[in-house]
Structure formats: C-alpha cells, structure tokens
Amino acid sequence: MLDDFFSRAIIAGIGVALIAGPLGCFIVWRRLAYFGDTLSHAALLGVALAFLFEINITLAVFGVSACVSIALLMLQRNASLSSDALLGLLSHSALALGLVVLAFMTWVRMDLMGFLFGDILAVSKMDIAIIWLGGALVFGILIAIWRSLFAATVNRELAEAEGMNPDRANMIFMLLMAAVIAISMKIVGVLLITAMLIIPAATARRLSSSPEQMALLAACIGSIAVIGGLFGSLEWDTPAGPSIVVGALFAFIISLIVVPLAGWRSRLKTNNNSSDLNKGSQL
C-alpha cells in the first residue's frame, strides 16, 4: 500500500509528463534546448519575486518566464546579436538576478535546493489541481495551434503563404512553455525542467514515424520515467527529481540499443527472404 504523499507525487509527475512530452517535441524539432534552459533559469527570479512581494510562486514564475519570452522576441527583432547570444544573456542574467534578490532577503528562509532540484514528494492536492487543470489548458491550446505551429516549424515561408500566422503561433508556444515550467517547477526543479522536456521527446523521435506519434510517445515515456524514477528513489533513497531525469535517460539509452537492433533484424529478415526467393528461382 503506497503512502498518500507517494501517490500524490506519481499523479503530479504524470500530469507534468503528459504535457511536457508534446511541448518537448517542438523544442527538439526547433532546436530550442537553450530556450528551455533560459526559461527554467528565469524561474528562480520568479521564486525570488514571489517571496519579495508575497504572491503565489506559480503565478510569479509564469509572469517572469512570459516576460523573458517576450523580451527575447523583441530583442531578436531589434538587436544585432544572434539568438544564442541573446538566450545566454537572458538566461544567466535572470539566474543571477534571482540569486542576488534572494541574498538580500535575509529575513526569508527557503529551501533553495528544493527549488533547484524539485520536491515532488511534498506536492499537495492543490498542487495536483494546478498541474492537471493548467496542463489541460495548455494541452487544449497546443492542439488548437498544432497545425500552424508545426507548419511554421517545417517552413516559415510556406506557413505564411498558406495564410497562417507564424509569429502568433511562436508567441503562444513561448507562453505555453512558460506555463509548463511554472507548474512543473515543484516536480523536478528549475535546473532539471529542460531535461524532462527534451529527453522523452528525443527518445520518442527514435521510435516514432510521425509527429503525432512522437508527441504521444514522448508523453508516455515521460510518464514511465516519472513512475520508474519515483520507485527508484523510494528503493535506493535518492533525490526524487534527479531520479526521474535518470529514468528518462535510461529510456533514451534503451532506445539507442533497440532501434539499431530492430533495424539489424529487419535487414536480416529481408536478406533471408531474398535468399529464399533466389533459391526458389533456381529450382
């Protein structure tokens, strides 16, 4: 019989994995891993501002992440720096500002390690409600913009020619990313959020044959990583958040073995069939 806190952790973790998987696919397709890092680092500034102004942490993290996303879009249009340079500037600046603000608030006692690496075993029923309701909203919006966002990912000019609005789709995607980071911060922490977005999607890419299949597989792989990581954490007394990421890593390693092995078997079967046909023709 599982304890209540462990059951809540599994429910919350699966809720995050189900929405992080599909969004992570676009991060992989668009090569935006550094963007995910930037938003996750900005989350710590959101935590600091939440303590400073005594507001809800999830809302503060979403607000800061959304502001960083908008700032990135504006700088990309007006600045002469490359996207990588802008992301590095925003990422490290936001992280440093968050740490400096926290250092000044000497009257606040907080578990910094919990925010950096997550504290999934401490999630409450309210946290679960926020994760699932927020995740459902994000998922619904993602479905609504899926066609235009995917078209902009494949070919921006073609998407514009078909009457779509790539800029609007990109803005909505960035806000969805900010929302996912805000609701998942308590699960794996600000330093490991990007891993949960990227690793299941990267694994699913090796196993899928269509974008929709990849999104579905990424959500399933993320959920398996959550369950396996939590049970591994319970068995070996390891940190829960990093254990979940390690579970996702094991899934990726398995995909590295399974896919080449399946290809080798397929080629072997094809060669055997060709050999049988040749023998039959000789007879």
What key phrases describe this protein's structure?
283 residues, mainly alpha, ABC transporter involved in vitamin B12 uptake, BtuC, 11 helices
Describe this structure in words.
- This protein is mainly α.
- The chain has one domain (4-282): ABC transporter involved in vitamin B12 uptake, BtuC.
- It is 85% helix and 0% strand.
- The longest helix has 43 residues, at 240-282.
- 42% of the residues are buried.
- The model has no long low-confidence stretch (mean pLDDT 85).
Might you state the CATH topology name? ABC transporter involved in vitamin B12 uptake, BtuC
Q: Kindly name the structural category.
A: mainly alpha
Tell me how many strands there are. 0
List the domain count as a whole number: 1
Can you count the helices?
11
Largest sheet: none
Can you describe this structure in just a few lines?
The protein has 283 residues and is an all-alpha fold. The protein has helices spanning 4-30, 33-53, 57-78, 83-104, 112-117, 125-154, 156-161, 166-188, 193-207, 211-236, 240-282. The longest helix has 43 residues, at 240-282.
Task: Record the SSE blueprint.
Elements lengths: L3 H27 L2 H21 L3 H22 L4 H22 L7 H6 L7 H30 L1 H6 L4 H23 L4 H15 L3 H26 L3 H43 L1
Helix pairs in contact: 1-6, 1-8, 1-9, 1-10, 2-3, 2-4, 2-8, 2-9, 3-4, 3-8, 6-8, 9-10, 9-11, 10-11
